């Protein structure tokens, strides 16, 4: 099951530098001019989770496999992108394909990097990008409404149902509100999802700050944080330049010492990845054994058979039960056998909602 975040923003705000650090690659060319990223680059990154290493140690696992998220580096948007300015139409199409938006905004003054707007104002930049996405959605919905109205007049029942959700979305967009603010009735959710609206996607604002502001942020990042809170979005402070230096250090101990010297306890990328995970409303369950301990990604609220299906479709088809131990009980009891002996292993059925950190052994028959 794939989950991905599209990294967006105006040109020259540090998107590609951040992406390169996230994926520890040089897939995306970082350059001081607009549109250096022409095609979207995708990279998988491990989701940091100390619980996985802990259960692997108790299970004496031969290998440890983390769960992953995918980040897609999408070229910079500019004012007028919804009308095809820059490489607008192409980029808007790429954004439409991702599950969430990781919006990088420049929160540092000075430096050699040229700002496309001529000055540094992260809130203005964020609103520029949001406006272009909103305008693109508005144009798309007005065209769809026209088509659906014609079909509805001809007696098409599906078109009549579609018009209901299109009308709700259009009302919000015309008021300058993104589609994610629409209160969609449960019966219209499937139609809403099929619209693939750019402004329906959850947003994580990444404040790219100077090295000195990496630990506490600065006045610019504080403005973005306030804006994000109003929008119900996530917000993370990162210095892309620091992250680029960290990934050059292969030794974890060297990385730790480097970060401590800057007053940091972890990389900004770890916070970005975790925030992206929360943004997509995901949870992790774990499997453990002598061969392998592994983390698995599922949507929050997924039932046990769905979780089993992420391992193999046969596990879901032939699901019998899920032998489940909470992470805390697994650790407190010294592993699976200790949890069994202490009566902490639960037999969960098809209606069980898997919880974050559950350590599960699935029983199935096909």
Explain this structure to me?
About 5% of the residues have low confidence. The chain has 366 residues and is α/β, with parallel strands linked by helices. Helix 7 links the parallel strand 6 and strand 7. A 6-stranded mixed beta sheet has the order 2-4-1-5-6-7, sandwiched between helices. The chain has 14 helices and 12 strands.
> What is the rounded Rg?
23 Å
Spans of at least 5 consecutive residues with low confidence: 26-38, 84-88
Instruction: Report the mean per-residue pLDDT as an integer.
Output: 85
Structural class: alpha/beta
Query: What is the 3D form?
Result: flat
Name the features.
flat; 14 helices; six-stranded mixed beta sheet
Write a brief caption for the model.
The chain is α/β, with parallel strands linked by helices and 366 residues long. It has helices at 15-23, 50-59, 88-96, 122-153, 157-174, 189-194, 219-231, 240-246, 252-261, 268-279, 304-311, 313-317, 327-332, 336-341, and strands spanning 4-8, 41-46, 63-65, 68-73, 100-106, 203-208, 234-238, 282-287, 292-299, 319-325, 346-348, 359-364.
Write the layout of secondary structure elements.
Elements: E1 4-8, H1 15-23, E2 41-46, H2 50-59, E3 63-65, E4 68-73, H3 88-96, E5 100-106, H4 122-153, H5 157-174, H6 189-194, E6 203-208, H7 219-231, E7 234-238, H8 240-246, H9 252-261, H10 268-279, E8 282-287, E9 292-299, H11 304-311, H12 313-317, E10 319-325, H13 327-332, H14 336-341, E11 346-348, E12 359-364
Helix pairs in contact: 1-8, 4-5
């Amino acid at each position: 099951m794939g989950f991905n975040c599209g990294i967006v923003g105006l040109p020259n705000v540090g998107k590609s530098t951040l992406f390169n650090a996230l994926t520890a690659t040089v897939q995306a060319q970082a350059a001081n001019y607009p549109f250096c990223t022409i095609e979207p680059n995708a990279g998988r990154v491990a989701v940091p989770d100390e619980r996985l290493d802990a259960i692997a140690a108790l299970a004496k696992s031969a290998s440890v496999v983390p769960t992953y998220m995918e980040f897609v580096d999408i070229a910079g948007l500019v004012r007028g992108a919804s009308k095809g300015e820059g490489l607008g139409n192409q980029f808007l199409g790429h954004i439409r394909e991702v599950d969430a938006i990781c919006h990088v905004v420049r929160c540092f003054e000075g430096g050699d990097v040229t700002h496309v707007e001529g000055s540094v104002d992260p809130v203005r930049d964020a609103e520029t990008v949001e406006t272009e996405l909103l305008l693109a959605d508005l144009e798309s919905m007005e065209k769809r409404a026209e088509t659906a109205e014609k079909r509805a007049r001809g007696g098409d029942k599906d078109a009549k149902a579609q018009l209901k959700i299109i009308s709700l979305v259009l009302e919000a967009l015309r008021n300058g509100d993104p589609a994610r603010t629409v209160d969609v009735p449960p019966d219209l959710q499937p139609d809403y999802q099929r619209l693939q609206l750019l402004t329906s996607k959850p947003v994580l604002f990444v404040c790219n700050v100077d090295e000195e502001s990496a630990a506490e942020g600065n006045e610019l990042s504080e403005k973005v944080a306030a804006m994000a809170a109003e929008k119900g979005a996530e917000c993370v402070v990162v210095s892309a330049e620091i992250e680029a230096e960290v990934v050059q250090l292969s030794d974890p101990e060297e990385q730790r010492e480097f970060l401590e010297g800057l007053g940091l306890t972890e990389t900004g990328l770890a916070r970005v990845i975790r925030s992206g995970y929360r943004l997509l409303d995901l949870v992790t369950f774990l499997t453990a054994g002598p061969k392998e301990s592994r983390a698995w990604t599922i949507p929050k609220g997924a039932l046990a058979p769905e979780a089993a299906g992420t391992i193999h479709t046969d596990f879901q088809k032939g699901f019998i039960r899920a032998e489940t131990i909470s992470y805390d009980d697994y650790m407190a009891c010294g592993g699976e056998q200790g949890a069994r002996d202490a009566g902490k292993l639960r037999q969960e059925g098809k209606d069980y909602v898997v919880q974050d950190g559950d350590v599960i052994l699935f029983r199935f028959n096909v």
